Amino acid sequence: AKYRKIQLLKDYVDETEKVVEEYNKEHHIDNSVLVNGRRQTNLGVFRAYLTNYLKSLPTVNQDLTCMVRQLQPTETGIPLELYFFSANKVWVAYEGIQADVFDHVLAIIPEFDLRVFQNPSGADLHRIGVKIEN
């Protein structure tokens, strides 16, 4: 229900919910047990949000490929790849567009109950060491 309030997701959530409900009904799924049937996931909704977000940006070339890919899971998580082309071909502008997209992605990840993984290093390891000693 909370994702339906996000402007770029309302139609996706409504349509996906309808498809899932129809599938579960058609296959006589007992929905009282969560593992039965199909469900929407926060990761799937996040991918849809990112796709719609990229398609809403005037700085993204809408005539070329634009997609959000879920890559093979690893021991550090499930990587996502944002594949799109800038509408601006000037290198400095392109770097700014890319940075703005990733600033937005990093800012909204918590809204989807997801986290970014980063290998600990430097100050992270120092903080861990301090906590272990104390």
Automatic annotation (TrEMBL):
Domain of life: Bacteria
A GO cellular-component term linked to this record: plasma membrane
Molecular-function annotations in GO: mechanosensitive monoatomic ion channel activity
One biological process term in Gene Ontology: cellular response to osmotic stress
PANTHER family assigned to the protein according to its UniProt record, in alphabetical order: MINICONDUCTANCE MECHANOSENSITIVE CHANNEL YBDG
Protein name: Mechanosensitive ion channel
